[in-house]
Design a protein that fits this description.
Helices cover about 65% and strands about 5% of the residues. By secondary structure, the chain is mainly α. It has three domains: about 5-100, Serine Threonine Protein Phosphatase 5, Tetratricopeptide repeat, CATH 1.25.40.10; about 125-185; about 195-265, Zinc/RING finger domain, C3HC4 (zinc finger) (Herpes Virus-1), CATH 3.30.40.10. The longest helix is centred in the middle third of the chain and has 52 residues, at about 105-160. Its EC number is 2.3.2.27.
Length: about 270
């Protein structure tokens, strides 16, 4: 058994460190084989060694510029290293390569990676915005307290007690109301029903259209036809599986929706 075969066997058994070592030995014997770097990058991916994934993906692309797998691994490594701009470009480059017929099977994984990136970027931005809001709120609370101290001093001089406390409570209530509204604006919007599968009620990723004019998630409809019979889940009309087609129009709308609403990915 040669080193490549050993690496493959170790990988299948989940022994990723051993697999990486076997591929390293294979690379020593054949350093111009791009697939060996890709396979080792897959091992490092399983081990969450993202810098090593990045290095091997880059080397694989040097040797094979049209390698969709290497480009995808490069994008995934960038994303996990939180280098999101580089990750987005790498995913986009992978999509261009996946447009070739022989690589079309990779497209769904690449699209999911890209949407995951959008979600991560949105989550990071939300976290930064929330932290900034908290800092601003503390500053405003300090200003409210300072105003109270000034007004309280004037009250003690004039003998009119109570207005300063009322003003402080009113300002605190206004501040709380303001931040409540800000929080509500950040709440996740709902996903349009037209983009959800009528079987799973989840956002569709691979919408298909039946002869009855109904759109479902491909895998959900496939399971329905397999276990329940060849009829439309909503209209109950008979279905010939060969008549089910991709709903490209709805898929394009979903892609636009996910780009504009990254929070929806994974819902």
């Amino acid at each position: 058994m040669n080193c490549r075969e050993e690496g493959k066997l170790y990988f299948q058994k989940g022994k990723y460190s051993a697999a990486a070592e076997a591929y390293t030995e294979a690379i020593t014997l054949d350093p111009a084989d791009a697939s060996l770097y890709q396979n080792r990058a897959l091992c490092y991916q399983k081990l969450s060694k993202w810098n090593q994934v990045l290095d091997d993906a880059r080397k694989a692309l040097e040797l094979s510029k049209k390698s969709v797998k290497a480009q995808y691994l490069l994008a995934t490594a960038f994303m996990n290293l939180n280098q999101l701009e580089e990750a987005e470009k790498a995913f986009q480059d992978a999509l261009v390569l996946a447009a070739l017929p022989e690589f079309s099977g990779y497209r769904e994984s690449i699209e999911q990676g890209l949407y995951s990136l959008y979600n991560k970027r949105w989550t990071n931005e939300q976290s930064i915005a929330i932290s900034q809001d908290e800092r601003n709120k503390l500053i405003i609370e300090e200003l409210i307290d300072e105003a109270y101290d000034l007004e309280r001093s004037k009250e003690e001089s004039s003998g009119e007690i109570g207005a300063a406390e009322r003003n402080r409570e009113r300002r605190r209530a206004q501040l709380q109301e303001l931040y409540q509204r800000i929080s509500e604006t950040r709440q996740e919007s709902t996903i349009p029903e037209s983009l959800c599968c009528q079987i799973t009620f989840d956002l569709m990723r691979d919408p298909v259209l039946t002869p009855a004019g109904q759109t479902y998630e491909s895998s959900a409809l496939e399971q329905h036809l397999k276990h329940n019979g060849h009829w439309d889940p909503v209209t109950r009309q008979p279905i010939n599986p060969s008549q089910v087609v991709k709903n490209l129009a709805v898929k394009a709308v979903i892609e636009d929706f996910l780009r504009e609403n990254p929070w929806a990915y994974g819902k």
